[in-house]
């Protein structure tokens, strides 16, 4: 699944750019237009529509997921060329576990294989990988693959690719509220536990002013 090295930097060996969905402009033209304006530091993309893409073409859903990997690779390549600092791909939400077991299994296998296949390209082109979301629910094989890639790319500096896995809006809201509550609790001074001495019963009575 790894793209040829020239596909990252637009070398002569790269496949010809398609102008089907770009109004007739080539990739190089679009890149020049993007670089002519201030480039955002962080862009996030919700990866959605793989199944609809496949269904509209009479293909199985797994074919759409494979195309999604290709689209993700091209997105990372374009983001790196444009000079983005961070790219976040929302890939698999906690709600996606409700999909058929066979599809979920395919997606996990595809994720593991893709990370392994793309790692050489990440290293060559300075892509640092980070994983967001709850990873405990992922299989041991997927977690190990992700951990290897994260560790291997830790020092890369061209662009940071963040893949959000097993994330959910409600879960993130709860986590944020808990974090805020914890910070507030830590900032509130605690009552002093030092003993009061002498005890109130043994304190001398205040003197009464005499005339």
Structure description:
- This protein is of the alpha/beta class and 211 residues long.
- The protein has one domain (37-188): Decaprenyl diphosphate synthase-like (Undecaprenyl pyrophosphate synthetase).
- It contains 7 helices and 4 strands; from the N terminus they run ααβααβαβαβα.
- The chain has helices spanning 6-9, 27-35, 50-56, 61-82, 101-124, 140-152, 169-187; strands at residues 42-46, 86-93, 127-132, 159-167.
- A 4-stranded parallel sheet has the order 1-2-4-3, with helices on both faces.
- Helix 6 links the parallel strand 3 and strand 4 (159-167).
- Helix 4 (61-82) runs parallel beside helix 5 (101-124) and helix 5 packs parallel to helix 6.
- The longest helix has 24 residues, at 101-124.
- It starts with 5 loop residues before the first helix and ends in a 24-residue tail after the last helix.
- Mean pLDDT is 82; it is low at 1-19.
Give a quick rundown of the structure.
The protein is built from seven helices and four strands; from the N terminus they run H-H-E-H-H-E-H-E-H-E-H. The chain is α/β, with parallel strands linked by helices and 211 residues long.
**Number of helical stretches of at least 4 residues:** 7
- What number of domains? 1
Q: Can you write the helix and strand succession as a string? A: HHEHHEHEHEH
CATH superfamily: Decaprenyl diphosphate synthase-like
Give the termini distance in whole angstroms.
Answer: 100 Å
Radius of gyration from the alpha-carbon trace, in angstroms: 27 Å
Q: Estimate the global geometry from the Cα principal axes.
A: elongated
**What is the second-level CATH architecture?**
3-Layer(aba) Sandwich
Oligomer state of the chains in this structure: single chain
Main sheet properties = 4 strands, parallel
Instruction: Assign the CATH topology.
Output: Undecaprenyl pyrophosphate synthetase
**Fraction of residues in helices?**
40-55%
The CATH C-level class name = Alpha Beta
Mean pLDDT: 82
Q: Could you tell me the number of beta strands? A: 4
Which structural class should the secondary elements be placed in?
A: alpha/beta
Weakly predicted, low-confidence segments: 1-19
Strand order across the largest sheet? 1-2-4-3
């Amino acid at each position: 699944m790894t793209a040829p090295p020239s596909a990252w930097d637009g070398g002569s060996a790269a496949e010809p750019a398609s102008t089907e969905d770009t109004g007739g402009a080539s990739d190089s033209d679009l890149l020049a237009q993007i670089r002519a304006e201030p480039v955002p530091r962080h862009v996030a993309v919700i990866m959605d529509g793989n199944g609809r893409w496949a269904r509209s073409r009479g293909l199985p859903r797994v074919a759409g997921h494979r195309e999604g990997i290709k689209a993700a690779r091209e997105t990372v390549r374009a983001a790196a060329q444009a000079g983005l600092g961070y790219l976040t791909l929302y890939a698999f939400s906690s709600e996606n576990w409700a999909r058929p077991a066979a599809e979920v299994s395919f997606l996990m296998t595809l994720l593991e294989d893709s990370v392994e296949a793309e790692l050489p390209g990440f290293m060559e082109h300075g892509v640092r990988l980070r994983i967001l979301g709850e990873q405990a629910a992922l299989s041991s094989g997927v977690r190990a693959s992700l951990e290897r890639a994260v560790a291997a790319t830790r020092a890369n500096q061209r662009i940071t690719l963040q893949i959000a896995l097993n994330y959910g809006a409600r879960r993130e809201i709860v986590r944020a509220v808990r974090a805020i509550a914890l910070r507030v609790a830590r900032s509130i001074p605690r009552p002093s536990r030092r003993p009061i001495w002498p005890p109130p019963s043994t304190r001398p009575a205040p003197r009464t002013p005499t005339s």
